[in-house]
Amino acid sequence: MEPTEHPVENWSEEKIKRRTLLSFGVFTAVGLAGIFGWRRYLTQPANDNGLTATPRKVLTFNENLNEAYFGEHRLAPTYPVSRAAKPARVNGDIGINTDIDLAQWRLEIVHPEGARSEQVALADIKSLPKQDIVFDFKCIEGWDQIMHYGGVRLSDLMQKYNFGTKSDGKTYYKYVGMETPDGAYYVGLDMKSALHPQTLLCYENNDAPLTIPHGAPLRLAIPVKYGVKNLKCVGKIFLSDERPRDYWHENGYEYDAAL
Ligand SMILES: Nc1nc2c(c(=O)[nH]1)N[C@H]1C(S)=C(S)[C@@H](COP(=O)(O)O)O[C@H]1N2
Ligand SMILES: [Mo]
Question: pTM (2 decimals)?
Answer without folding.
Answer: 0.76
